[in-house]
Amino acid sequence: MVRQYDLRQRFQWLLPPAPVWHNPAETQVTAPLGRWNLYIGSAGAHAPGYVNLDLFPLANVDVAANAEALPFANNQFQRVECDAVLEHAEFPEKIMREIERVLAPGGFAHIVVPFCHPYHAYPTDFRRYTPDGLLQLKGNLEVIAQGWRTGPTSTLLVTLLEYAKLWMPNKALRGLTHVTLGWLLFPLRYLDAILLKKPTAHILGNHHYLWLRKP
User: How far is it, in rounded angstroms, from Cα 39 to Cα 21?
Assistant: First the structure.
């Protein structure tokens, strides 16, 4: 495992940019961090300013726990990030009620989920959400903003990469396909800067978000 990690680090420069363009509107919401903030589902990524919680005790994870039963007191956090987690949860409604519970009054929750996106297990993958379906989980939290993080072009490129890899007979060739095709396709991601302005972008949207506030 250590050797595999070292190899990934050594050849990191070979990996193509992500085939997705992030909508800047998602980060233009005024939702300041407080003294205590919670990040759910980091998968080991560095999350400065947050208590970093994930299902597994990975590097950079402060607390390993199931988000369906958060090990924190009521009204503790000024901001909660829940990024691409609900699709992996057996009971996503429980996670949303836990987020509502641990948020301080006036605190903010930022929820991101996929819509048109390939299967990705961590450790399982149960569902996809339309924007209307995600709104059903908000409970007593107030919606302050919603929209698409990544759009139709992201859906197309991510799906095409996974489709091409399906034809490859082994892991090495799948990796080579990902690198080669990824470098060729990623410039097309900027088409979403145009497509996300169209009212029909939701038909093939990739990931969407909600900004919520606790009254």
Answer: 22
